[in-house]
Design goal:
By secondary structure, this protein is mainly alpha-helical. It folds into two domains: 80 residues; 33 residues, no CATH class. The protein has four helices and no strands. Helix 1 packs antiparallel against helix 2. It is elongated. The chain starts with a helix and ends with a helix. The structure holds zinc ion. The site of zinc ion has 8 residues, from helix 4.
Length: 116
C-alpha cells in the first residue's frame, strides 16, 4: 500500500487519540462537577442535564475508541502488506474508496454483499 494511505491512517489515529484524550478530560471535569454538592438526578434539574451530557460524552468516546481500533487494525494490514486487498475476494480496493474510507477492508461489491 502506498505511503499516503499509511499517512492518512496515522493522521486518523492521531485525531482519534486526541479526541479521546479531550473527551476523557471533559468526562472527568463533569464527574468533578457532579461531586460538588449532592447532585440528585431525580430532583435536581441540573443533575439531569449533567448526566445527559455525561452519557453523550461517554457515547462519543466509545465511538472514537471503535474508530481507533479500526484504524489500528488497518495500520497492521498496511504493515503486513494486506491493506488495499478485499478480505473477501482478494481484489484490490480502489484508491478512491480507500481515500474516502481508509479503514475499508472490502471492495465495494463485497461490502454491498455483506450489507455494509
Ligand atoms: Zn471483494
Amino acid at each position: 500500500m502506498d505511503d499516503s494511505h499509511r499517512a492518512h491512517l496515522e493522521a486518523l489515529r492521531a485525531d482519534a487519540a486526541a479526541r479521546i484524550a479531550q473527551l476523557t478530560v471533559d468526562i472527568d471535569a463533569l464527574r468533578a462537577d457532579r461531586g460538588d454538592g449532592n447532585a440528585d438526578d431525580e430532583h435536581d434539574p441540573e443533575g439531569v442535564t449533567l448526566s445527559a451530557e455525561w452519557s453523550m460524552l461517554a457515547g462519543l468516546r466509545e465511538q472514537e475508541l471503535r474508530t481507533l481500533i479500526e484504524v489500528e487494525a488497518s495500520l497492521e494490514r498496511v504493515a503486513d502488506g494486506t491493506a488495499g486487498r478485499c478480505i473477501d475476494c482478494g481484489a484490490a480496493i480502489p484508491a478512491a474508496r480507500l481515500e474516502a474510507r481508509p479503514t475499508a477492508v472490502r471492495c465495494v461489491a463485497c461490502a454491498e454483499r455483506a450489507g455494509l
